[in-house]
Amino acid sequence: MNLTAQDEIAVYVEGVRQALAGLPATVRDELLEDLPEHLAEVLAEGGGSLHERLGPPDAYAAELSASAGFVLGTPIEPPGDQSRIAATAARHRARIDRALRRADERVGPVLGYPRASEFLTLLRPAWWVLRGYLAAMAVAFMLHDHSSPLGLLPRAGGDDFTAVFLLTLGILGSIWLGRRGQPAARWPRRLFRFGTAFLVIFAVVGFFEVDSAAQRDSYYDQVSYTPGPGNPYSDIRDVYVYDGQGRLQVGVQLYDQNGQPIRLGEAICWDAHGNEVPIANPGYPYCPVQAPFQSAEPTAAPSGEPSGAPSGEPSTGSSTGSAGDSEKRPAPTTPPA
Amino acid sequence: MLRVDATQLLKGVLDLAVLAVLREEDGYGYDILRRLRAAGLEDVGDASVYGTLRRLFNGGLLNSYVVPSDEGPHRKYYALNEAGRAELQRSGKVWHGFASIMEDLLRERGKA
């Protein structure tokens, strides 16, 4: 037997736990809460194994439950399926409890406390305040008509006074609930836990929502012309500039008021058959052959013209297209040089 | 069964004994057990003391605090609070009354 003290204690506590299977789980857990620490004290005194000093776990359990004011029910004779499942569940719960306790003790020193739970206990009032805020936000979210973004305050009716009132109410209510502790009865406690879980999910979803909204806002603040989400120009693939006479300009560079180059679209050009056309001119348009007011005008591009150069014939005799089309179109003229 | 042994008697007064031990000085589980045994209650079991401490603590008669220890485990100390002190006084009176009645009874039976 080379059990470590921790193992010996765990085995013994497990034995006691199983012997107490007749007690309700909550009572039993409460009874066993400090037993590992207590047994550690017993072991630390020396003088033999736990078994030698305290007797078998079931005798210990009987004495314990009697002194703690509980009568051990007679063990269920042939354990039914349900109780066997319950016993297995209890064993697993005990194992999880043990793992949590171990993690608690390991993480604690990193935070500067004997146990991590002691540190978390200190944070409890902060959680109450946060929970109050989340509850107020959840209420506001449900009452909100969604015509405008909700913002960070619980503006249920859209006005700030109600928002602050709701927020105060939520936080004070949550602190009150926190000081009162979890409800003792089974169903209220379940409801309480369900509510908490709901608020946590609500908080996580809400956080990402607010985060992406904040990112969108920053796009509007410093106008970016790069294609991407939130850019109103992301649909634009190419830019065609016509001068006062309606002539298509090539090799155009665009800048904003700060001298920042405006980049729109992609420097790729395909012809009508889907073949890639080499880009002849730096600047816009990347793809002169695709000019919207030219390609609709088959007669406007004489066959002798180089494909990359803007071209067009005087409108006389070429307005064979639809009447509407020629109205919208800038009058094509002969290209410069 | 008419047999009366110390273990059975102890069950009824263990609460009182634990409270009395804690009146002198705060203590952790095993320390309380040792003090009870040193006082003469040699049959008292570890589980009984632990269970009694849990019950008195849950009943609001004791406060507890953890004292980290360099060698060995952290120790959970128990201390009497106001309610515990009041209970000790009340139960103490009951015990004294009961004990003197028993004393008288046994003495008279002895004479008879």
UniProtKB/TrEMBL annotation, chain A:
Superkingdom of this protein's organism: Bacteria
Pfam families on file: HAAS
Biased composition (Low complexity): 298-324
Region annotation (Disordered) ranges: 294-337
Residue ranges crossing the lipid bilayer per the database entry: 125-143, 163-179, 191-208
Swiss-Prot/TrEMBL keywords: Membrane, Transmembrane, Transmembrane helix
Record's keyword annotation contains Membrane: yes
Name the UniProt record assigns to this protein: Uncharacterized protein
TrEMBL record, chain B:
Gene3D superfamilies: Winged helix-like DNA-binding domain superfamily/Winged helix DNA-binding domain (1.10.10.10)
InterPro entries: Metal_resp_DNA-bind_regulator (IPR052509), Tscrpt_reg_PadR_N (IPR005149), WH-like_DNA-bd_sf (IPR036388), WH_DNA-bd_sf (IPR036390)
Alphabetical list of SUPFAM superfamilies matching this protein: Winged helix' DNA-binding domain
Transcription regulator PadR N-terminal domain ranges (all copies): 18-90
Listed name of the protein: PadR family transcriptional regulator
